[in-house]
Amino acid sequence: MNELIQVEERQIGDGAIQTVNARDLHAFLEAGKDFSTWIKDRIAKYGFVEHHDYALYLLPNFREKGQVRSSKEYAISLDMAKELSMVERNNKGKQARQYFIECVRRANA
């Protein structure tokens, strides 16, 4: 199976589960909105819950003149990734959803 989007184990809530970076999913899906707007809208619209469906963490980005600015990153569960892929309703969304279903199948095998 080719890796469309990197899957890694991360801590969400009480356990370590398979997750993907929401920015990577956003880029793969070729979603029209900028990332920040897209993820916030999707979380609100579909009722995703922090520490259950996703974990939020800050990643420092170094800028000019030694300034550091952090970016918000989201590690999302494969279930959340499948749902986000499904609601995009395009070929990329279908491809991503099928990929995540296969990732879960292999993990459970």
Please write out the topology.
Blueprint: E1 7-12, E2 15-21, H1 22-29, H2 35-46, E3 54-62, E4 68-77, H3 78-88, H4 91-108
Antiparallel strand pairs: 1-2, 2-4, 3-4
Helix pairs in contact: 3-4
What would you say this structure looks like, in words?
The model has no long low-confidence stretch (mean pLDDT 90). The protein is globular, with a radius of gyration of 14 Å. A hairpin with a 2-residue loop joins strand 1 and strand 2. By secondary structure, it is an alpha+beta fold. Helix content is 45%, strand content 29%.
Which secondary-structure class do the elements indicate? Answer: alpha+beta
Distance from first to last alpha carbon: 15 Å
Rounded mean pLDDT is 90
Shape by Cα distribution: globular
Return residue spans where pLDDT drops below 50 for at least 5 consecutive residues: none
- Classify the oligomer: single chain
Largest sheet, strands/sense/barrel: 4 strands, antiparallel
Number of distinct helices = 4
Order of strands across the biggest sheet?
Answer: 1-2-4-3
What is the helix/strand order?
EEHHEEHH
Task: Please tally the β strands and state the result.
Answer: 4
Structure in a nutshell:
The protein is α+β, with helices and mostly antiparallel strands and 109 residues long.
Provide tags for this entry:
single chain, 109 residues, alpha+beta, 4 helices, 45% helix, globular
